[in-house]
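One thing: could you explain this record?
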Amino acid sequence: MSREPISLTPPVARAIRVSAPFKRGTAKHFVDEHLEELARLADTAGAEVVGTFTQQLDRPNPATYLGSGKVEELKFRIKELGASLVIFDDELTPAQGKNIEQIVGTRVMDRAELILDIFATRARSSEARMQVELAQLEYLLPRLTRMWTHLEKMRGGIGMRGPGETQLETDRRLIQHRIRILKERLTDVERAREIQRQQRQSHFRVALVGYTNAGKSSILRTMAADGLVFVEDRLFATLDPLTREVDIGDGYTVLLTDTVGFIRKLPHHLVASFRATLAEAREADLLLHVIDASHPAWEEHRDVVDGVLNELGLGERPLTYVMNKMDALPATEAEAVRQRVKNLMPTSLFVSAIAPGGLEALKASLRASLRRQRPVLEVRIPAGNGRLIAEVHRDGEVLDQQVDDDVVVLRARLDERAIGRLRQAGVRVVVTQGVTRPERAAAAVAVPLP
Protein backbone atom coordinates (compact mmCIF):
# COMPACT_ATOMS: atom_id res chain seq x y z
CA MET A 1 0.00 0.00 0.00
CA SER A 2 1.48 3.32 -1.08
CA ARG A 3 1.65 6.18 1.35
CA GLU A 4 1.72 9.91 0.75
CA PRO A 5 5.17 11.38 1.47
CA ILE A 6 5.37 13.40 4.67
CA SER A 7 6.27 17.05 3.99
CA LEU A 8 8.68 18.67 6.44
CA THR A 9 8.10 22.11 4.91
CA PRO A 10 5.90 24.33 7.13
CA PRO A 11 2.66 25.41 5.48
CA VAL A 12 2.70 28.83 3.83
CA ALA A 13 0.58 31.36 5.72
CA ARG A 14 -2.46 32.51 3.74
CA ALA A 15 -2.73 36.24 4.35
CA ILE A 16 -5.33 38.96 3.85
CA ARG A 17 -3.87 42.45 3.42
CA VAL A 18 -5.81 45.34 4.95
CA SER A 19 -5.56 49.01 4.00
CA ALA A 20 -7.50 51.83 5.66
CA PRO A 21 -6.40 55.22 4.26
CA PHE A 22 -7.80 58.46 5.66
CA LYS A 23 -10.42 60.17 3.49
CA ARG A 24 -8.85 63.59 3.99
CA GLY A 25 -5.26 62.51 3.23
CA THR A 26 -3.33 61.75 0.07
CA ALA A 27 -2.80 58.06 0.95
CA LYS A 28 -6.13 57.11 -0.67
CA HIS A 29 -4.64 58.01 -4.05
CA PHE A 30 -1.83 55.47 -3.54
CA VAL A 31 -3.88 52.57 -2.13
CA ASP A 32 -3.12 50.18 -5.00
CA GLU A 33 0.59 50.99 -4.92
CA HIS A 34 0.78 50.58 -1.14
CA LEU A 35 -1.12 47.29 -1.23
CA GLU A 36 1.18 45.99 -3.96
CA GLU A 37 4.18 46.85 -1.81
CA LEU A 38 2.54 45.15 1.18
CA ALA A 39 2.04 42.03 -0.96
CA ARG A 40 5.75 42.06 -1.87
CA LEU A 41 6.64 42.39 1.81
CA ALA A 42 4.39 39.43 2.61
CA ASP A 43 6.01 37.39 -0.17
CA THR A 44 9.47 38.27 1.14
CA ALA A 45 8.38 37.07 4.59
CA GLY A 46 7.08 33.80 3.12
CA ALA A 47 3.32 34.43 3.16
CA GLU A 48 0.85 34.08 0.29
CA VAL A 49 -1.64 36.93 -0.15
CA VAL A 50 -5.08 35.46 -0.89
CA GLY A 51 -7.27 38.52 -0.40
CA THR A 52 -7.55 42.27 0.09
CA PHE A 53 -9.74 44.30 2.45
CA THR A 54 -10.02 48.10 2.43
CA GLN A 55 -11.95 50.87 4.18
CA GLN A 56 -11.60 54.65 4.01
CA LEU A 57 -11.54 56.22 7.47
CA ASP A 58 -12.25 59.65 8.88
CA ARG A 59 -10.13 58.57 11.85
CA PRO A 60 -9.00 55.20 13.26
CA ASN A 61 -11.28 53.48 15.75
CA PRO A 62 -9.33 53.57 19.06
CA ALA A 63 -10.39 49.99 19.85
CA THR A 64 -10.23 48.17 16.50
CA TYR A 65 -8.72 50.66 13.99
CA LEU A 66 -11.45 49.69 11.48
CA GLY A 67 -15.11 50.33 12.20
CA SER A 68 -16.83 47.63 14.28
CA GLY A 69 -19.00 46.55 11.36
CA LYS A 70 -15.97 46.28 9.09
CA VAL A 71 -14.14 44.07 11.59
CA GLU A 72 -17.09 41.64 11.53
CA GLU A 73 -17.01 41.76 7.74
CA LEU A 74 -13.27 41.02 7.88
CA LYS A 75 -13.99 38.00 10.11
CA PHE A 76 -16.38 36.60 7.48
CA ARG A 77 -13.83 37.26 4.74
CA ILE A 78 -11.14 35.33 6.67
CA LYS A 79 -13.37 32.27 6.92
CA GLU A 80 -14.39 32.55 3.28
CA LEU A 81 -10.79 32.55 2.06
CA GLY A 82 -9.37 30.17 4.67
CA ALA A 83 -6.82 32.77 5.72
CA SER A 84 -4.57 32.27 8.75
CA LEU A 85 -3.03 35.74 8.90
CA VAL A 86 -4.21 39.36 8.62
CA ILE A 87 -1.66 42.05 7.73
CA PHE A 88 -2.53 45.72 8.26
CA ASP A 89 -0.71 48.30 6.14
CA ASP A 90 -0.67 50.73 9.09
CA GLU A 91 0.77 50.38 12.57
CA LEU A 92 -1.70 49.16 15.18
CA THR A 93 -1.62 50.03 18.86
CA PRO A 94 -1.21 47.06 21.26
CA ALA A 95 -4.89 47.36 22.24
CA GLN A 96 -6.09 47.46 18.64
CA GLY A 97 -4.09 44.37 17.70
CA LYS A 98 -5.38 42.48 20.73
CA ASN A 99 -9.02 43.43 20.12
CA ILE A 100 -8.96 42.57 16.41
CA GLU A 101 -7.41 39.17 17.12
CA GLN A 102 -10.12 38.40 19.68
CA ILE A 103 -12.87 39.27 17.21
CA VAL A 104 -11.57 37.61 14.02
CA GLY A 105 -9.97 34.63 15.76
CA THR A 106 -6.72 34.60 13.78
CA ARG A 107 -3.22 36.06 13.88
CA VAL A 108 -3.05 39.82 13.22
CA MET A 109 0.11 41.77 12.47
CA ASP A 110 0.82 45.26 11.19
CA ARG A 111 3.28 46.56 8.63
CA ALA A 112 5.93 47.37 11.25
CA GLU A 113 5.86 43.85 12.68
CA LEU A 114 6.04 42.36 9.17
CA ILE A 115 9.13 44.44 8.33
CA LEU A 116 10.76 43.43 11.61
CA ASP A 117 10.06 39.78 10.79
CA ILE A 118 11.71 40.15 7.37
CA PHE A 119 14.76 41.81 8.91
CA ALA A 120 15.02 38.97 11.44
CA THR A 121 15.15 36.34 8.68
CA ARG A 122 17.61 38.30 6.51
CA ALA A 123 20.08 39.49 9.14
CA ARG A 124 23.42 37.76 8.57
CA SER A 125 26.11 39.45 10.65
CA SER A 126 26.07 39.43 14.45
CA GLU A 127 25.67 43.21 14.39
CA ALA A 128 22.58 43.09 12.17
CA ARG A 129 21.06 40.32 14.29
CA MET A 130 21.58 42.37 17.44
CA GLN A 131 20.04 45.45 15.83
CA VAL A 132 16.98 43.52 14.66
CA GLU A 133 16.56 41.78 18.01
CA LEU A 134 16.71 45.15 19.79
CA ALA A 135 14.05 46.60 17.48
CA GLN A 136 11.83 43.53 17.94
CA LEU A 137 12.08 43.62 21.73
CA GLU A 138 11.29 47.34 21.87
CA TYR A 139 8.29 46.69 19.61
CA LEU A 140 7.22 43.70 21.71
CA LEU A 141 7.54 45.25 25.18
CA PRO A 142 4.27 47.26 25.17
CA ARG A 143 2.46 44.32 23.51
CA LEU A 144 3.23 41.65 26.11
CA THR A 145 -0.27 41.82 27.58
CA ARG A 146 -1.69 40.78 24.21
CA MET A 147 0.43 37.62 24.30
CA TRP A 148 -0.97 36.56 27.68
CA THR A 149 -4.70 36.89 26.97
CA HIS A 150 -5.19 33.15 27.55
CA LEU A 151 -4.37 33.67 31.26
CA GLU A 152 -6.04 37.02 31.87
CA LYS A 153 -9.11 35.48 33.55
CA MET A 154 -6.88 34.11 36.33
CA ARG A 155 -5.83 37.55 37.52
CA GLY A 156 -7.03 38.75 40.88
CA GLY A 157 -6.66 41.69 43.22
CA ILE A 158 -3.80 42.43 45.62
CA GLY A 159 -2.46 39.17 47.00
CA MET A 160 -4.53 37.20 44.51
CA ARG A 161 -2.59 37.71 41.31
CA GLY A 162 -2.63 34.73 38.97
CA PRO A 163 0.23 33.16 37.02
CA GLY A 164 -0.58 35.21 33.90
CA GLU A 165 0.22 38.50 35.58
CA THR A 166 3.25 37.05 37.35
CA GLN A 167 4.64 35.71 34.08
CA LEU A 168 3.89 39.03 32.38
CA GLU A 169 5.99 40.91 34.92
CA THR A 170 8.79 38.35 34.67
CA ASP A 171 8.85 38.60 30.88
CA ARG A 172 8.88 42.39 31.03
CA ARG A 173 11.92 42.39 33.34
CA LEU A 174 13.74 39.85 31.17
CA ILE A 175 13.10 41.86 28.01
CA GLN A 176 14.20 45.12 29.63
CA HIS A 177 17.40 43.41 30.80
CA ARG A 178 18.06 42.02 27.33
CA ILE A 179 17.47 45.45 25.76
CA ARG A 180 20.11 46.97 28.06
CA ILE A 181 22.62 44.25 27.11
CA LEU A 182 22.00 44.71 23.38
CA LYS A 183 22.41 48.48 23.61
CA GLU A 184 25.74 48.06 25.44
CA ARG A 185 26.98 45.57 22.82
CA LEU A 186 25.92 47.81 19.95
CA THR A 187 27.77 50.70 21.59
CA ASP A 188 30.91 48.54 21.53
CA VAL A 189 30.29 47.75 17.86
CA GLU A 190 29.98 51.46 17.12
CA ARG A 191 33.34 52.12 18.81
CA ALA A 192 34.97 49.43 16.65
CA ARG A 193 33.40 50.90 13.51
CA GLU A 194 34.67 54.34 14.48
CA ILE A 195 38.22 52.98 14.57
CA GLN A 196 37.71 51.46 11.10
CA ARG A 197 36.37 54.76 9.78
CA GLN A 198 39.36 56.65 11.15
CA GLN A 199 41.63 54.30 9.21
CA ARG A 200 39.76 55.29 6.05
CA GLN A 201 40.14 59.04 6.54
CA SER A 202 42.44 59.40 3.57
CA HIS A 203 39.93 57.78 1.20
CA PHE A 204 37.08 59.50 -0.58
CA ARG A 205 34.04 57.72 0.85
CA VAL A 206 30.73 57.40 -0.97
CA ALA A 207 27.56 55.80 0.47
CA LEU A 208 24.66 54.40 -1.55
CA VAL A 209 21.32 55.17 0.07
CA GLY A 210 17.80 54.76 -1.24
CA TYR A 211 14.47 52.97 -1.19
CA THR A 212 14.62 49.20 -0.91
CA ASN A 213 15.10 47.42 -4.25
CA ALA A 214 16.21 50.59 -6.04
CA GLY A 215 19.33 48.83 -7.32
CA LYS A 216 22.02 49.97 -4.87
CA SER A 217 23.62 46.52 -4.61
CA SER A 218 23.58 46.15 -8.40
CA ILE A 219 25.46 49.44 -8.75
CA LEU A 220 28.07 48.33 -6.19
CA ARG A 221 28.41 44.92 -7.85
CA THR A 222 28.94 46.42 -11.31
CA MET A 223 31.28 49.22 -10.26
CA ALA A 224 33.40 46.92 -8.08
CA ALA A 225 33.30 44.13 -10.71
CA ASP A 226 32.61 41.81 -7.77
CA GLY A 227 30.26 38.93 -8.51
CA LEU A 228 30.14 38.04 -4.81
CA VAL A 229 28.09 41.16 -3.97
CA PHE A 230 24.65 39.74 -3.22
CA VAL A 231 21.88 40.97 -5.52
CA GLU A 232 18.25 39.82 -5.44
CA ASP A 233 15.04 41.27 -6.86
CA ARG A 234 13.36 41.35 -3.45
CA LEU A 235 12.76 43.91 -0.75
CA PHE A 236 15.55 44.26 1.83
CA ALA A 237 18.03 41.95 0.09
CA THR A 238 20.85 43.82 1.88
CA LEU A 239 20.93 44.62 5.60
CA ASP A 240 24.64 44.78 6.42
CA PRO A 241 26.77 47.61 5.03
CA LEU A 242 29.24 46.40 2.41
CA THR A 243 32.23 48.47 1.29
CA ARG A 244 34.40 47.98 -1.77
CA GLU A 245 37.26 50.01 -3.24
CA VAL A 246 36.12 51.03 -6.71
CA ASP A 247 38.23 52.22 -9.64
CA ILE A 248 36.41 55.12 -11.34
CA GLY A 249 39.07 55.84 -13.96
CA ASP A 250 41.92 58.36 -14.49
CA GLY A 251 43.77 56.89 -11.51
CA TYR A 252 40.94 57.65 -9.07
CA THR A 253 39.43 55.22 -6.57
CA VAL A 254 36.66 55.64 -4.01
CA LEU A 255 35.36 53.56 -1.13
CA LEU A 256 31.77 52.75 -2.10
CA THR A 257 29.41 51.47 0.62
CA ASP A 258 26.02 49.84 0.13
CA THR A 259 23.63 50.50 3.02
CA VAL A 260 20.28 49.08 4.13
CA GLY A 261 17.33 50.20 2.03
CA PHE A 262 14.50 52.33 3.39
CA ILE A 263 10.77 51.88 2.94
CA ARG A 264 7.54 53.74 3.57
CA LYS A 265 6.49 53.63 7.25
CA LEU A 266 9.81 52.14 8.36
CA PRO A 267 9.36 51.15 12.04
CA HIS A 268 10.82 53.79 14.34
CA HIS A 269 12.54 51.18 16.54
CA LEU A 270 14.26 49.75 13.46
CA VAL A 271 15.56 53.16 12.36
CA ALA A 272 16.89 53.79 15.85
CA SER A 273 18.61 50.41 16.21
CA PHE A 274 20.27 50.70 12.78
CA ARG A 275 21.92 54.03 13.55
CA ALA A 276 25.29 52.29 14.01
CA THR A 277 25.06 50.70 10.56
CA LEU A 278 23.97 53.96 8.96
CA ALA A 279 26.91 55.75 10.56
CA GLU A 280 28.75 54.66 7.40
CA ALA A 281 26.48 57.07 5.52
CA ARG A 282 26.95 59.75 8.18
CA GLU A 283 30.74 59.64 7.74
CA ALA A 284 30.66 59.58 3.92
CA ASP A 285 32.01 62.48 1.88
CA LEU A 286 29.12 62.05 -0.57
CA LEU A 287 25.72 60.32 -0.51
CA LEU A 288 24.34 58.80 -3.70
CA HIS A 289 20.55 58.67 -3.38
CA VAL A 290 19.62 55.83 -5.76
CA ILE A 291 16.07 55.97 -7.17
CA ASP A 292 14.31 53.36 -9.29
CA ALA A 293 13.35 55.53 -12.27
CA SER A 294 11.13 52.78 -13.69
CA HIS A 295 8.88 52.71 -10.62
CA PRO A 296 5.67 54.74 -11.02
CA ALA A 297 5.91 56.00 -7.42
CA TRP A 298 9.56 57.09 -7.58
CA GLU A 299 8.74 60.59 -6.34
CA GLU A 300 7.09 59.19 -3.21
CA HIS A 301 10.09 56.89 -2.69
CA ARG A 302 12.43 59.88 -2.97
CA ASP A 303 10.43 61.77 -0.33
CA VAL A 304 10.43 58.76 2.02
CA VAL A 305 14.22 58.40 1.83
CA ASP A 306 14.79 62.13 2.23
CA GLY A 307 12.56 62.03 5.31
CA VAL A 308 14.52 59.16 6.89
CA LEU A 309 17.82 60.89 6.10
CA ASN A 310 16.56 64.02 7.86
CA GLU A 311 15.47 61.90 10.83
CA LEU A 312 18.97 60.45 11.02
CA GLY A 313 20.57 63.90 10.86
CA LEU A 314 21.91 63.36 7.33
CA GLY A 315 19.77 65.95 5.59
CA GLU A 316 22.69 68.37 5.18
CA ARG A 317 25.18 65.87 3.79
CA PRO A 318 26.38 66.39 0.18
CA LEU A 319 24.00 64.32 -1.93
CA THR A 320 23.50 63.44 -5.59
CA TYR A 321 20.31 61.86 -6.93
CA VAL A 322 21.00 58.84 -9.17
CA MET A 323 18.10 57.73 -11.36
CA ASN A 324 18.75 54.01 -11.85
CA LYS A 325 17.08 51.40 -14.11
CA MET A 326 16.70 53.82 -17.02
CA ASP A 327 17.11 50.79 -19.29
CA ALA A 328 13.75 49.46 -18.04
CA LEU A 329 11.84 52.46 -19.48
CA PRO A 330 10.56 52.76 -23.06
CA ALA A 331 12.12 55.67 -24.95
CA THR A 332 9.11 57.99 -24.62
CA GLU A 333 8.73 57.33 -20.89
CA ALA A 334 12.47 57.71 -20.34
CA GLU A 335 12.41 61.16 -21.96
CA ALA A 336 9.43 62.19 -19.82
CA VAL A 337 11.25 61.06 -16.67
CA ARG A 338 14.37 62.98 -17.70
CA GLN A 339 12.38 66.19 -18.17
CA ARG A 340 10.54 65.74 -14.87
CA VAL A 341 13.75 65.00 -12.96
CA LYS A 342 15.66 67.90 -14.52
CA ASN A 343 12.89 70.26 -13.37
CA LEU A 344 12.86 68.87 -9.82
CA MET A 345 16.51 67.87 -9.29
CA PRO A 346 18.69 69.53 -11.95
CA THR A 347 21.98 67.88 -10.94
CA SER A 348 20.63 64.30 -11.09
CA LEU A 349 22.36 61.49 -12.96
CA PHE A 350 20.67 58.93 -15.23
CA VAL A 351 22.21 55.46 -15.10
CA SER A 352 21.69 51.75 -15.55
CA ALA A 353 23.51 49.17 -13.44
CA ILE A 354 23.09 46.45 -16.07
CA ALA A 355 23.30 48.17 -19.47
CA PRO A 356 26.80 48.31 -21.03
CA GLY A 357 28.39 51.63 -20.10
CA GLY A 358 25.33 52.50 -18.05
CA LEU A 359 27.37 53.78 -15.10
CA GLU A 360 29.84 55.99 -16.99
CA ALA A 361 27.95 59.17 -16.05
CA LEU A 362 28.20 58.20 -12.38
CA LYS A 363 31.93 57.50 -12.63
CA ALA A 364 32.52 60.82 -14.39
CA SER A 365 30.57 62.65 -11.70
CA LEU A 366 32.60 60.97 -8.94
CA ARG A 367 35.83 61.88 -10.72
CA ALA A 368 34.68 65.50 -10.86
CA SER A 369 33.94 65.41 -7.13
CA LEU A 370 37.36 63.96 -6.39
CA ARG A 371 39.12 66.55 -8.55
CA ARG A 372 37.48 69.34 -6.58
CA GLN A 373 38.73 67.98 -3.28
CA ARG A 374 42.18 66.77 -4.45
CA PRO A 375 44.90 69.43 -4.51
CA VAL A 376 47.02 70.15 -7.57
CA LEU A 377 50.64 69.49 -6.62
CA GLU A 378 54.08 70.21 -7.95
CA VAL A 379 56.15 67.05 -7.43
CA ARG A 380 59.90 67.10 -8.04
CA ILE A 381 61.45 63.62 -8.45
CA PRO A 382 65.01 62.75 -9.53
CA ALA A 383 64.91 61.61 -13.15
CA GLY A 384 66.60 58.36 -12.23
CA ASN A 385 63.85 57.32 -9.81
CA GLY A 386 61.52 55.68 -12.33
CA ARG A 387 59.64 53.80 -9.59
CA LEU A 388 58.35 56.96 -7.91
CA ILE A 389 57.52 58.62 -11.25
CA ALA A 390 55.52 55.54 -12.26
CA GLU A 391 53.78 55.58 -8.85
CA VAL A 392 52.59 59.16 -9.40
CA HIS A 393 51.20 58.19 -12.82
CA ARG A 394 49.55 55.10 -11.33
CA ASP A 395 48.01 56.63 -8.21
CA GLY A 396 47.11 60.10 -9.46
CA GLU A 397 46.11 62.23 -12.39
CA VAL A 398 49.17 63.80 -14.05
CA LEU A 399 48.30 67.16 -15.64
CA ASP A 400 51.75 68.09 -16.90
CA GLN A 401 55.31 66.71 -16.88
CA GLN A 402 58.58 68.54 -17.60
CA VAL A 403 62.26 67.89 -17.06
CA ASP A 404 64.38 70.49 -15.22
CA ASP A 405 68.06 69.39 -15.43
CA ASP A 406 68.09 66.00 -13.71
CA VAL A 407 64.70 66.45 -12.02
CA VAL A 408 61.27 65.48 -13.37
CA VAL A 409 58.66 68.10 -12.41
CA LEU A 410 55.08 66.83 -12.42
CA ARG A 411 51.84 68.73 -11.92
CA ALA A 412 49.40 66.16 -10.62
CA ARG A 413 46.35 65.53 -8.46
CA LEU A 414 47.04 63.01 -5.69
CA ASP A 415 45.22 61.75 -2.63
CA GLU A 416 46.55 62.12 0.89
CA ARG A 417 47.97 58.59 1.03
CA ALA A 418 50.07 59.13 -2.10
CA ILE A 419 51.26 62.53 -0.83
CA GLY A 420 52.33 60.93 2.45
CA ARG A 421 54.28 58.18 0.71
CA LEU A 422 56.10 60.66 -1.53
CA ARG A 423 57.07 62.93 1.36
CA GLN A 424 58.20 59.89 3.35
CA ALA A 425 60.49 59.02 0.42
CA GLY A 426 62.04 62.50 0.64
CA VAL A 427 60.28 63.91 -2.44
CA ARG A 428 59.49 67.62 -2.49
CA VAL A 429 55.72 68.08 -2.81
CA VAL A 430 54.21 71.58 -2.99
CA VAL A 431 50.45 72.26 -3.07
CA THR A 432 49.80 74.79 -5.83
CA GLN A 433 46.02 74.58 -5.91
CA GLY A 434 43.44 72.65 -3.92
CA VAL A 435 41.29 72.31 -0.83
CA THR A 436 42.00 71.29 2.73
CA ARG A 437 40.40 68.33 4.46
CA PRO A 438 37.69 70.33 6.29
CA GLU A 439 36.56 71.74 2.95
CA ARG A 440 36.18 68.27 1.43
CA ALA A 441 32.50 67.82 2.26
CA ALA A 442 31.55 71.16 0.75
CA ALA A 443 33.45 70.30 -2.42
CA ALA A 444 31.88 66.87 -2.83
CA VAL A 445 28.56 67.81 -4.44
CA ALA A 446 28.48 66.31 -7.93
CA VAL A 447 28.25 68.49 -11.00
CA PRO A 448 25.36 68.04 -13.44
CA LEU A 449 26.21 65.92 -16.44
CA PRO A 450 24.33 65.51 -19.71
